[in-house]
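User: Can you predict the 3D structure for this chain?
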Amino acid sequence: MDSDPNLLFEIYKSEFKILKKENFTLTYNNYLKAVEETWRDFQNSKYKEDAFLKVLLKKINIKYTKSLSKAISENYNNIINNSKEYTLKNKFSKNTLKLIKYLIKKDYILGIISDTKTSWIKDWVKENKFNNFKYFSLSNEVGGKKASGKPYVDFINKIKLDGYLPSNVLHIGDLSVDIEAKKYGINAVLYNPLKLPYKHFLYKPDYVIEDLIDVINIINK
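Assistant: Here is the predicted structure, written as structure tokens:
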């Protein structure tokens, strides 16, 4: 899980209020779909980073202006700045460590697929001596983020060397791009503690949970 869903929800909700003033017919679901499509295109490097807002606005029939760009930018920065302390205090979701320790106790083989720019994940695993983590497919190492499919393909290639199949894997994530694991034959679990809308996701999750500890119920079925 690479982004805080609480934070994303706040950004989406407040940004929608700004854009709704520019287009009264805009619905929240259509806005989410447009964000999803635009974000995926950018993850696949179809556009330059500074063109994101212009592309998004075009999709929802809103004219780009400098004043609108400034309003959205200020809104984003305010939310990010106010969330920094919260994010630092909540690096891992509730019950994350409890779930990991349970899986290790039951001798499950673990792996991590993540969009990250650093190696902190491997360092964290090493520091905690979580030896059951055998597979790592990180975007900064495979040359592409999850939306490009490269981390998933890399992960599958690694597990196949040990005789495992994508269908043997349960992938847990809180974003739509995490659920795209299904495209590659991997079982996908949506971690959705805030009960956020997900009908706009390109792929639908096999399971939806509000508490990570519920993964235990899934694997014990």
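The longest strand covers residues 133-138. The CA atoms of residues 43 and 147 lie 6 Å apart.
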